[in-house]
Amino acid sequence: MRIFTVPEAPESALSIIEQRLSENLTGFLGESIVAVEKPLSSIEQDFLTHEIPQLPSFVSDYADEMMQKLVAHSVHTASPSFIGHMTSALPYFVLPLSKMMVGLNQNLVKIETSKAFTPLERQVIGMMHHLIYGQSASFYEQLMHSANHALGAFCSGGTVANISALWIARNKLLQPDGEFTGIEKQGLHRALRHYGYDDLAILVSERGHYSLGKTADLLGIGRDQIIQVPTDADNKVDVTLMRQYAQKLAAKNIKVMAIVGVAGTTETGSIDPLPELAALAQEIDCHFHVDAAWGGATLLSSKYRALLKGIELADSVTIDAHKQMYVPMGAGMVIFKDPSSASAIEHHAEYILRRGSKDLGSQTLEGSRPGMAMLVHACMKIIGRDGYEILINNSIEKARYFADHIKQQPDFELVTNPELCLLTYRYVPIAVRNAMDIARERGDTELLARFNTLLDGLTKFIQKRQRENGKSFVSRTRITPERDFKQRIVVLRVVLANPLTTREILHDIIAEQRQLAEQNIRYLPPLLELASSVATPQAC
Ligand SMILES: *Cc1c(COP(=O)(O)O)cnc(C)c1O
Fold first, then answer.
1. What is the pLDDT, as a whole number, of residue 34?
2. Which of 88, 159, 322 to mutate to test the pocket of ligand 1 (most atoms within 8 A of CB)?
3. Distance separating alpha carbons of residues 516 and 463, to the nearest angstrom
């Protein structure tokens, strides 16, 4: 874990910020930074002027000002006790290397502004392709740097990666055919008329990421056509139901454009049954995309990569390097099984992106792009497969440990088990747990709902108060567990990616949550009262 601790930094005007930032990379809840939570509205006071300053100012003055206004109130995403989101700590070497990237200011849209960065990016994409699809050495030798092929596309994140993948799926489905010159030229309306479909749809789990909604909107098929299929008790999409949905759509002459499998859902970290989804996609002849934005990095662990089995059957895969690959934000990738896929969205222009050129911009949604691939390259080279093996395994095993720890607490309830390193849970006083079990046994959903409503209030209180205390942070979300008859409940959500998060920190977080809960006067007393009324039936 030494790469997550920072070597000595020199002392000079700007370098103080840099040094503090470096310290942040190993968690800056220490004394170096004021960690007192300031309400958003008072921070906004520092950013009220709408006029661009008339007079220039000294860099050092600006840096001093920002130290107070910006750095001091930034969120401690790198802290080992910040375990609420997918944004986590960075290795120390990322900061100096990113200066090199910014300084060189290469534009990946075209070779003329990125002579060496373009091959580097193609190599990064090639490595990721190999990680997923494991093709032969000669495959990569022929195709990785080929002007007429793309093994994938680098982009700003999972959202753009998902859009790119489904854009390709749409254009391949509605490709040129005889007189019809393709959707890219003639638009959705005429494309549907030509192919004789009434509409298009995308099938995905109800836990699919909201970026798919944006995608459907942008691609012109509409958000309503993202068909959300319910999940089973393990939060994995129900493939039998999905098949039934597909048949109903077919009966209505609605063509399923793509099936999207999620490998690591945002709320529960669950992995859909990818081989079954691939089989269904083949059966109904549609594109199979896997959204592994968060979970895809698990492929770097030889011990756990089997959890994602079936991913190699996907036509396209989204992976965010800025999630579990410890790269700073702005590093998303979509990888294509078929190296000629991207020709479906190819665009050419005269002054750049000429036909036959190696300009990456001809096959990407984005135009001008920074050399972020360099930081993925750096992490892969410096951390290596061996390093990632340790990091990924460590996260998964820590999550399993934390799940066991939660299960051992009589007043906490593990709501979803960690398949990878994401889990959800909540605080439930012992008496309430017992009473809820009685309610579940009786199938008394109304009583259960009364408990859940009060518990939702309590869970939100714990989460907000803990964040305000500023020692640690977990997030919260809403899910619909089977054992509570799919009632929508609020849960605490933890993502364990920071290698410096220790077991002691996890114990402390639980202890703090218990303490906060026990102090609550709004939800706890009515909860206990309701529980005692269940225990003594005459009170019901
Ligand atoms: C994070 C995430 C996305 C979106 O990625 P961004 O990088 O935030 O654009 C999409 N899908 C899943 C499953 C994710 O976890």
1. 38
2. 159
3. 9
Residue 235 and residue 290 in contact, taking contact as beta carbons nearer than 8 Å? no
Q: Whose CA is nearest to atom 4 of ligand 1?
A: 158
For every residue of 200-263, DSSP letters joined together read EEEEEETT--THHHHHHHHTTS-GGGEEEEPB-TTS-B-HHHHHHHHHHHHHTTEEEEEEEEEB
**Does residue 293's CB lie within 6 angstroms of at least one atom of ligand 1?**
yes
Tokens of 411: 């007043």
- For 340-375, what is each residue's pLDDT tens digit? 988 888 877 666 566 778 888 888 999 999 999 999
Q: What percent of the chain has pLDDT over 90?
A: 81
The answer, yes or no, to whether any atom of ligand 1 lies below 6 A from the CB of 211, is yes
Whether this prediction's pTM lies above 0.70 is answered by yes
Q: What is the CATH number of domain 115-369?
A: 3.40.640.10
Query: Contact 39/467 with Cβ under 8 angstroms?
Result: no
End-to-end, the C-alpha distance of the chain in Å comes to 56
Q: Where are the domains positioned within the chain? A: 115-369, 391-539
Query: Which residue stretches of the chain have pLDDT < 50?
Result: 13, 26-35, 539-540
CATH H-level, domain 391-539: superfamily: Aspartate Aminotransferase, domain 1 (3.90.1150.10)
**Using an 8 Å Cβ cutoff, are 479 and 489 in contact?**
yes
Please say whether the beta carbons of 297 and 276 come within 8 A: no
pLDDT, tens digit, for every residue of 487-500? 999 999 999 999 99
Partners of 231 in beta bridges: 237
What is the C-alpha separation between 222 and 230, in angstroms, rounded? 20
Query: Is the shortest distance between the CB of 215 and ligand 1 below 6 Å?
Result: no
pLDDT (0 to 100) of residue 360: 82
